[in-house]
């Protein structure tokens, strides 16, 4: 499991994780900040090495598969 670190950008949380010593941003959070409504469509437009899946623990303590980007 990867440890989450949360930053605030204009009062919106943006979660990050470290994978192989590289920072990755939770795609949904980045889309929220940018006003984009369909993260899966955004992921389709990125190069394969820019998108990954990882597990994070949500606010209720559940393990969730999450799309992250570099």
Explain what the structure shows.
The chain is α+β, with helices and mostly antiparallel strands. It has helices spanning 27-34, 39-44; strands spanning 4-9, 12-19, 22-26, 51-57, 63-69. The chain has a 5-stranded antiparallel β-sheet with strand order 1-2-3-5-4. A hairpin with a 5-residue loop joins strand 4 and strand 5 (63-69). The longest helix has 8 residues, at 27-34. The two termini are 18 Å apart. The relative contact order is 0.24. The mean pLDDT is 92.
Report the C-alpha radius of gyration, rounded: 12 Å
Number of helices: 2
- C-alpha geometry: globular
Structural class assignment: alpha+beta
Which whole number gives the mean pLDDT? 92
Cross-sheet strand order for the largest sheet: 1-2-3-5-4
Describe the main β-sheet briefly: 5 strands, antiparallel
pLDDT < 50 stretches: none
β-strand percent reads: over 45%
- Report, as a whole number of angstroms, the end-to-end distance: 18 Å
**How many distinct beta strands?**
5
Order of helices and strands: EEEHHEE
Percent of residues in helices = 10-25%
């Amino acid at each position: 499991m990867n440890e989450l670190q949360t930053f605030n950008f204009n009062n919106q949380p943006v979660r990050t994780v470290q994978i192989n010593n590289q920072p990755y941003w939770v795609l949904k959070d980045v889309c929220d900040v940018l006003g984009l409504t369909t993260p899966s469509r955004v992921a389709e437009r990125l190069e394969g090495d820019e998108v990954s899946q990882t597990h994070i623990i949500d606010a209720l303590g559940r393990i969730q598969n999450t799309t992250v980007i570099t």
